[in-house]
Design brief:
This protein is an alpha+beta fold and about 280 residues long. Helices cover about 30% and strands about 30% of the residues. The chain contains 7 helices and 16 strands.
Length: about 280
């Protein structure tokens, strides 16, 4: 069961029109939330990030598309889909049909999909650098548009070479993020993550973790440019996104990483941030 503009439709009954702009031009933004034990985590942060993305793409936000409406539509979809277990919720918003590069309207449609969460567990989580195509630095790359071809190609590369994830770089050869996650490095008592102007996604777990770590005295969180060489100098590396939350990295090339502080941060996230 999916939710199209507030109307529940069976998956097989829904079809995109030939003039759909998300399909033709990637003229769309999306967000992914986690439904766990009856809770929608960080729903307010997700809502305001989606609104910010729509404004950046000059999409018209309907007057009724409030935080309360957004959450109610997600919950309605979850209930009708009978997702009693943990689920992934994807909210897509795309500009209404019509036009070529220049749209005929800035009105928008939305689509809500839900699916059971499947998080593979790896005994040895190994990452590698993906260098074939860079991510563009700047604010446009910080929003989740449907144009994710670099992520797709990096995923193909990771699969072909038996890596669990790949690290993307920008045109300045700076580390940006992983395929589906933000990246954090731990060096001593410093927790370092690339700044938004590197081109990394403005991740919700990234945001909440930075806010939480800033209140601690034992760890210093920094948003700094990160080079690929810095990955080898790190004591620990972990990845963050809304579904996996915190994923420790075991290995990058010949360097194996500790997970001591990562596990402490993960415990802190679950007890102090995600409560």
């Amino acid at each position: 069961m999916i939710n199209f503009n507030g109307r529940l439709i069976a998956d097989k009954a829904f079809n995109l029109g030939l003039k759909n702009r998300a399909f033709k031009y990637g003229d769309s933004v999306f967000d992914t939330l986690k439904w766990e034990n009856g809770l929608l985590y960080f729903v307010e942060d997700h809502y305001f990030r989606l609104m910010s993305s729509m404004r950046m793409l000059r999409m018209k936000i309907p007057l009724n598309f409030t935080l309360e409406y957004y959450e109610a539509q997600i919950r309605k979809t979850l209930e009708e889909s009978r997702e009693n277990k943990n689920a992934r919720v994807r909210v897509s918003v795309y500009r209404a049909d019509g036009g070529y590069y220049a749209p005929q309207t800035n009105e928008s449609d939305f689509l809500i999909e839900v699916a059971p969460i499947e998080i593979p567990r790896h005994e040895n989580y190994e990452i590698e650098l993906y260098k074939d195509f860079p991510v563009a630095s700047g604010l446009l790359s910080t929003i989740k548009t449907n144009n994710r071809i670099i992520n797709v190609l990096a995923s193909v590369y990771a699969t072909e070479n038996a890596y669990q994830n790949c690290i993307l770089i920008n045109e300045k050869k700076e580390v940006v993020e992983a395929i589906n996650s933000n990246i954090f490095l731990i060096r001593g008592n410093q927790v370092i993550t690339p700044p938004l102007d590197s081109g990394c996604i403005n991740g919700i777990v990234r945001k909440k973790l930075i806010e939480g770590l800033q209140k601690r005295d034992d760890l210093k969180v920094l948003e700094l440019a990160v080079s690929p060489f810095d990955l080898l100098k790190a004591d620990e590396i972990f990845l963050t996104n809304s579904i996996n939350e915190i994923q420790p990295v075991d290995q990058y090339r010949k360097k194996r990483f500790s997970q001591e502080k990562t596990k402490e941060i993960e415990s802190f996230f679950h007890s102090d941030i995600k409560k």
